[in-house]
TrEMBL record:
Subcellular location: Cell membrane
Species, as recorded: Actinomadura gamaensis
Name of the protein: Carbohydrate ABC transporter permease
Keywords: Cell membrane, Membrane, Transmembrane, Transmembrane helix, Transport
Major site of localization recorded for this protein: membrane
Transmembrane segments: 21-43, 88-110, 122-146, 152-175, 196-218, 257-277
Entry superkingdom: Bacteria
């Protein structure tokens, strides 16, 4: 090996190492910037009132000793545990209903060659684009007519109206990515269409199902307008409406307890989201490309 070749290789090696180090430093910097609001909320949740009210104090440090009083207040003097339970119940029910409706609809539009398939798929997606603020008055009348006011069932019945359309559109793209030959081979081996769908197709579209589950649950947990319009009784409220209702009273903000509620709500969702992040991203990107 000549000296010039060795020098060139060392130069490219240094450039590669420098590029990787720069990339990781930028990634760490971006992660810290994104984590600053969460860290600020976590520190604020354990601050004393005197520490919080003094504008000269460092907002990211404990200038006075930390106290768990505000976190204890959140769990003992408010309905936060009930709000979390209600949110989980509503989210789980909406996810199940969304999958039960979206999977057959997406399968029929992706597999059955009908002239109305594409227009109907586009129409289903356009329904999702209608702002919820334009529909909550009419939806409220429907909920009252069904006798579901001030109950969790009001949200369970209405939320699928905006989770199902986008879920159908997403699953259509992912089902089209699965070759028909795989399903037809299963039917040749003696499976019915339903059995082939359950045994062959569903495992292949699992990333899309994960994307639908994460999307439907997070959208349900963060929704505010319908939850506020349908439920006024505190024991039936979810986190999005119960926390601000009980911790914002006129011009009095229970700030540390509000930050504690944000932290305890965000951590489980963030953990589950990151647990299935690869499949979630795969579900959205594959569905977008193949639609």
């Amino acid at each position: 090996m000549s000296a010039d070749t060795a020098a060139l290789r060392r130069r490219y090696a240094r450039r590669y190492v420098l590029g990787r180090v720069t990339l990781y430093l930028l990634a760490i910097l971006a992660a810290l910037v994104c984590a600053l609001p969460f860290l600020w909320s976590l520190v604020s949740a354990f601050k004393q009132n005197q520490d919080l009210y003094n504008p000269s104090n460092d907002p990211f440090a404990f200038n006075r000793p930390a106290t768990p009083d505000h976190v204890r207040y959140l769990f003992t003097d408010t309905g936060f545990p009930t709000f979390v339970t209600n949110t989980l119940l509503v989210g789980a029910a909406v996810v199940v209903i969304t999958l039960l409706l979206a999977l057959p609809a997406a399968y029929s539009l992706a597999r059955l060659d009908r002239p109305w398939g594409t227009p109907m798929g586009i129409g289903i997606f356009l329904v999702y684009l209608v702002p919820p603020s334009l529909l909550f008055l009419s939806m409220t009348r429907v909920v009252v007519a069904l006798g579901l006011a001030d109950s969790l069932w009001s949200m369970i019945v209405v939320y699928p109206t905006f989770t199902v359309p986008v879920s159908v559109w997403l699953l259509i793209g992912f089902l089209r990515a699965v070759p028909k030959d795989v399903e037809e081979q299963a039917m040749v081996d003696g499976h019915s269409r339903l059995s082939a769908f359950a045994r062959v197709v569903l495992p292949l579209v699992f990333p899309g199902i994960v994307a639908v589950v994460v999307f439907a649950f997070t959208l349900t947990a963060s929704e505010f307008v319908y939850a506020l319009a349908f439920v006024s009784a505190a024991p039936k409220m979810v986190v999005s409406t119960g926390v601000p209702t009980q911790l914002v009273r006129g011009d009095v903000f229970y700030w540390q307890s509000l930050q504690a509620a944000a932290v305890f709500t965000a951590v489980p969702i963030a953990f589950v989201f990151n647990l299935f992040l690869d499949r979630f991203v795969t579900g959205f990107t594959m569905g977008a490309v193949k639609t």
